[in-house]
Amino acid sequence: MNKLYKVGIYCRLSVDDASNSAKARNYIPADESVSIENQRELLSKFAMLNGWVETKTYCDDGYSGGNFQRPGFLEMLEDARNGIINLILVKDLSRLGRDFVEVGRYTDVVFPSLGCRFVSVLDCLDSEGDNTDMLHFRSLMNDYHLRDLSSKIKSVLHSKKASGQFISAYAPYGYRKSAGDKHKLVIDEYAAGIVRRIYDMRLAGTAYGQIAAALNREGITSPRVYWSQINGKDSCKAAQLWTYATVKTILHNEVYKGTLVMNHTGTRSYKDHTQIGKPETEWIRHEALHEAIVTAEEWKTTYSGRSTTSPAPTPAMTNTATIWTRSSTTPMNWLLS
Predict the structure, then answer these.
(1) Confidence tier at 15 by pLDDT (50, 70, 90)
(2) In what order do the strands lie in the sheet with 53-61?
(3) Torsional sign, CA 98, 101, 104, 105
(4) Contact 331, 261 (CB under 8 A)
(5) In this structure, are residues 195 and 258 in contact, taking their beta carbons and an 8 Å threshold?
(6) Residue of 334, 147, 135 whose CA lies nearest to 251
(7) β-bridge mates for residue 57, sequence order
(8) What are the Cα distances from residue 88, in Å, to 13, 73, 215?
(9) Spatial separation of the C-alpha atoms in residues 217 and 219, rounded to whole Å
(10) Stretch 6-13: mean pLDDT
């Protein structure tokens, strides 16, 4: 008697599979996402032709093949543990993933331990057949594709940074992206006025916390809420108030004196996207790249921790300033926090 196979269809489309321009914009065009439907249709017909029972479909749209913490994939594993499915069906091996080590662990160890058969249609791979010799070779090639793609994307982004193009998703408070060139910063007059006032207050000896309190008392919109409002986004989840940290980061950000600092962070590897700080020797710095909101002297005075009316900082104050120096000079991180 033939075994009854309860099929779990797995479909994935990744930013890695989209065009380079789409990857740079960090989204997948609508016509690309249709391939999820194409995968589902192909696999559904394949299951029917083999007399298998199509039990459930799992989709991960917009997840990298190097990341195995995908909601659809994890749900599929849980269903396999509970016996809801006993056959995992994919269009090709790269849909399962592009990490050679992890793919091998799942196909050789995890799926068999769960009593799950694994079938890749276009690769003609079946874990219960005698044609698995090519499985690891194909997986290795998929891993190489991921590494090569990552290297090309980093090269393109580094070239943009070196040429002075602003490539962050959000303009820092006080600026906006130019309508004619989204890689160029232009002054937002309203927000720039608030930034100038923050610098004036600090130069007069006002403490960071006192500056934040004054802005909150006057009902000045916080940077996150302001950005949400001008971009038509929901501002309910944004930080509603000015904080000590926000004020201090604005005062220490070189962008306000016309200097753009980039390439100060990166990832551990093409598989591990954990953000790490880069040594200052690798930073890319462009002086006088856009219109400044404050003078270089004003920025230097506030960054050094001195004001025009306050005494020289005590050792304790100096230590505190030193702690903030590295993190606070990174542009735009206050807006994304």
Answers:
(1) low
(2) 53-61, 6-13, 87-90, 117-120, 125-126
(3) negative
(4) yes
(5) no
(6) 334
(7) 9
(8) 17, 11, 57
(9) 5
(10) 95
**What sections of the chain are H helices per DSSP?**
20-25, 30-49, 71-81, 93-96, 100-105, 111-113, 135-162, 189-203, 208-217, 223-230, 244-252, 296-303, 315-328, 333-336
Write out the two tokens for 154.
């980093």
Percent of the chain scoring above 70 in pLDDT: 77
Per the DSSP assignment, residues forming a β-bridge with 126 are: 119
Compare 133 and 165 and report the one with higher pLDDT.
Answer: 165
Q: Whole-angstrom Cα distance, residue 173 to residue 224?
A: 9
Q: How far apart are the first and last CA of the chain?
A: 59
Q: How many helices (H) and strands (E) does the chain have?
A: 14, 11
In this structure, the chain runs to a length of 337
Average pLDDT for 267-285: 81
Q: pLDDT (tens digit, 9 = 90+) per residue, 213-242?
A: 999 999 999 999 998 888 877 766 657 889
Q: Specify the pairing of strand 275-277 against strand 265-267.
A: antiparallel
For residue 332, give the H/E element and its range: none
> In the structure encoding, which two tokens stand for residue 112, read together?
């068999």
CA 151, distance to chain mean position in Å, is 16
Judged by DSSP in three states, 117 sits in strand
Read off the pTM.
0.53
Q: Percent of the chain, pLDDT > 90?
A: 44
Q: 329, 260 in Cβ contact below 8 A?
A: no
